[in-house]
Structures are given as C-alpha cells and as structure tokens.
Amino acid sequence: MSASLLRRGLELLEARGRGKAPPGLQAGSGGPRTRRRKAAKGPKKSKATIKGRVVKSAIEEYHKKKAVSHLRENLQYMTSGRCVADKAVTQQILTQNRGRKSKDRPPEKKAKKKPEGTVFTEEDFRKFEREYFGTL
Predict the structure, then answer these.
(1) Are 20 and 14 in contact, with CB atoms under 8 Å apart?
(2) Which of 21, 81, 110, 112 could form a disulfide with 14 if both were Cys (CB 3.0 to 4.6 A apart)?
(3) Exposure string for 56-73, b = 16+ CB within 10 A, e = fewer
(4) CB neighbour list of residue 24: distance below 8 Å, 6 or more residues apart
(5) What pTM did the predictor assign?
(6) How confident is the model at residue 73 (pLDDT cuts 50, 70, 90)?
(7) What's the CA gap between 24 and 30, in Å, rounded?
C-alpha cells in the first residue's frame, strides 16, 4: 500500500471512530511527506495537433543557422592595434602551433654554402714560389 492510501484510510477511521487519531499518525505531523507536482498554470494545447502550427521554410532555417564569417571585423581589429610583434616571436609562435608530427613540419632551410674563395691572389702565389723555391 502506498503512504497516501494509508493516510486516507486513517482519516476515514478518525472521522468515524474516536475524535482523534494517535499522535504519531495525525495529519500534518513531522512524519514523512510525499511531494505532489503542481499542475502547470494556464491552458495547455495538445502538441499532437498541427492546427495553428506555422510551417517553416528549410532554406530560411538554414540561413538562420549558417555560420557567419567574422574575418573582416577580426582583421580590422587586429590591424588597428599599435603593438606589432617581432618577426622572430611570430615565427616561434607559428612553429609551436604547427603540428607536432614530422609530416606537419616543413623541411628546414639549409644555409647555402658560399663557394670558398681564396684570400690570396695570383701575384701572392708567384711571390711565395719565388721565396720558397727560389728562382730557377
């Protein structure tokens, strides 16, 4: 039996029999209570009917939920700033945000080797030959 049925039965017995129920079974005592849901106020319409429903266009719904590009406003905001970071700092940020895998990294640029030129001229070589080997 549920608690509500017990309470109703006791109330009926109380009204018929003695004048009062035992103190532990009186209504409004500190015993366990069940909460009742309050009915929603105002008239509710049945959702099963289509009457009064407005048909929405799928194209209009698509345009409402379509992503809006804020690129132009963002670029304008970013370019209007006074502070410009160093090129080294921006490169470091870009490399940190790039993927960690080796396939995501571009090949590192190798410094071009300059052809090794001599410091000495032809005349210096002739002078060295004369001093070292002597004149033949």
Answers:
(1) yes
(2) 21
(3) eeeeeeeeeeeeeeeeee
(4) 31
(5) 0.21
(6) very high
(7) 8
